[in-house]
Known about the structure:
Structural class: mainly alpha
Strand content: under 5%
Number of strands: 0
CATH topology: MetI-like fold
CATH class: Mainly Alpha
Number of domains: 1
Mean pLDDT: 88
Helix content: over 70%
CATH superfamily: MetI-like
Largest sheet: none
CATH architecture: Orthogonal Bundle
Order of helices and strands: HHHHHHHHH
Amino acid sequence: MPAAANTYRAKRRVRLWAGAALVGTYVLIALIGDRLAPYHPDEQDLFNILGAPDAAHWLGADNIGRDQFSRLLVGTRFTLAVAFLSVVLAVTIGATLGLIGGYFGGRVDAAVTGLVDLLLTVPELILAIAIASVVGAGMTGLIVATTASFVPRLARLIRGRVLEIREEEYVQAAITVGMSDARVLLRHVMPNAVTVIVIEASLLAGQAVLVGTALGFLGLGVQPPAPEWGTMLGAGREYLDVAPHLVVMPGIAISLLIFGFNLLGDGLRDALDPRSRA
């Protein structure tokens, strides 16, 4: 049994470090991608329009002769920026709503729960499309839409965790001795809810990449000529028959990034959630 347990723990550590390494690689590319790119992302080679991968253009060229490899490298920062900002904002808003609703209860909790339940009746992607259509295409609209689609799920999750923490003896004791609500929340409730927040945020990052690129594919994301991956996918679908690399290469980049975030999230859950160690 000890050997089996050690093997299981080793597998969980491999998953965590593999996810961290993959995501870290993407972050590094986002930071220095423009220096690694062999061409400027908007530079055109009019003699190689829709060119297949070769020695000059490793991943081929697009419909106006731009180097696909360079555009993917530079576009990493757009995709990661949307995912990071969306998750940070969603965690901030969702955690605030969940903490307030779960701790204070009563009418406050009823109002928060009613709003969350209403938003949860709409699928995340549909909600994101609707919001992006209202706010407008572009980086701001993309971040707002992706953030809003994640807030209800986070608020419900954190509210449930706060309801559990609020019943703990040390929290009840703090309330009994007259500690202010703000101090109880910051000193006792919030620190014990951080684990749930970190795990869910890491898992949501992959979903943020998926939603962000889906909106870009539909023309509601970062607008051309910016090399955002979803926008590149949307532009490349028209040439799928003659230049499949325009869709395959961004698709692989998106899939690997989502896979990395999922590995990282699963690894963090195994490492930080005591219930997963049983």
